[in-house]
Design a protein that fits this description.
Layout: H1 26-33, H2 41-53, H3 57-77, E1 82-86, H4 96-103, E2 108-113, H5 116-126, E3 132-136, H6 142-146, H7 149-154, E4 162-166, H8 178-187, E5 194-200, H9 207-216, H10 230-234, E6 241-242, E7 248-249, E8 270-276
Parallel strand pairs: 1-2, 1-4, 2-3, 4-5
Antiparallel strand pairs: 5-8, 6-8, 7-8
Length: about 280
């Protein structure tokens, strides 16, 4: 964390001009929960406010990161060598490209995010990696992601792809039809491609948390109506074969060690799953 003489966070080289770091940012709050340093005092205050109403917030963020890492390793072991991570957030420990490269050297990754701060920082960190590109794009316009020159340079759509949508679709309201968005991504990739998805669950997320989140982000966070029930989340896998163990709480998805699953995994209030487009 960079601070000035008054103890206040100062803007860094990677923060684009005009970005107000005195207001909380979704990606930077998540970075704070993960123990990262790419956040400012406003983000820390927002993160602590959310923790006050939902003490499991930090554990949820870390569990989501753990799920994403396990899923990427699984995809790499299944032969996937190209990944598109949408809503990727600020780079932090064990990024997708690091996990993929470790599991399958030569893997290629496209990171896509709508947030200009995220994109600026990601590009600054990853500009010298020829197997990684970072694009600014809105998930609500999938073609902007699929047709971006950086995507076309790295991703061969004639071969299977891993589409990663970790903790992003609950920021898409129903009126923007997240099911159609996922379907458009699905229709652009070949059989043998995978969807990795996690999504906040209405069954367990408290109304207090949703209300505070909406307030601290000043409308930038999804309203509680976007925190969907299990059946609505399961519909996002239409056209995919949902793999074992199905749509489960984050720590339950193929844990590295059974002891890693807490006694009450539902308290982390996010569901996760991986699906594959079947052959034929």
């Amino acid at each position: 964390m960079v601070q000035n003489g008054d103890g206040m966070a100062s803007e860094r080289d990677w923060v684009p001009p005009g970005v107000d770091t005195s207001k909380a940012n979704i990606a930077r709050v998540y970075d704070y929960w993960l123990g990262g340093t790419n956040n400012f005092l406003a983000d820390q205050d927002a993160a602590r406010a959310l923790i006050a109403v939902e003490p499991n917030s930090r554990a949820m963020a870390r569990a989501n990161r753990g799920f994403l890492g396990r899923a990427v390793r699984f995809l790499a072991a299944s032969g996937i060598r190209q990944f598109i991570d949408v809503g990727s957030g600020i780079p932090t420990a064990r990024n997708v490209h690091e996990v993929a490269e470790e599991a399958a050297p030569g893997s290629r990754v496209v990171y896509a995010d709508i947030d200009e701060v995220v994109v600026a920082h990601s590009r600054a960190l990853l500009e010298n990696n020829p197997d990684v590109s970072v694009i600014q794009a809105d998930l609500r316009n999938p073609r902007d992601i699929l047709d971006a020159p950086e995507t076309r340079r790295l991703i061969d759509f004639e071969k299977p792809v891993g589409i990663l949508l970790a903790a992003v679709l609950h920021f898409i309201p129903d009126q923007d039809d997240p099911w159609a968005i996922v379907a458009r991504l699905r229709d652009a990739i070949v059989p043998g491609s995978y969807l990795v998805l996690s999504h906040a669950s209405a069954e367990m997320m408290s109304e207090d948390f949703a209300k505070v989140a909406k307030k601290v982000y000043e409308g930038k966070v999804a309203a509680s109506s976007n925190i969907r029930r299990r059946d609505s989340i399961a519909r996002l896998f239409d056209g995919f074969d949902l793999l074992e163990p199905g749509l489960v709480w984050l720590p339950q998805w193929r844990p590295d060690n059974p002891d890693d699953v807490p006694r009450h995994p539902e308290k982390l209030w996010m569901l996760a799953g991986v699906g594959v487009i079947p052959a034929g």
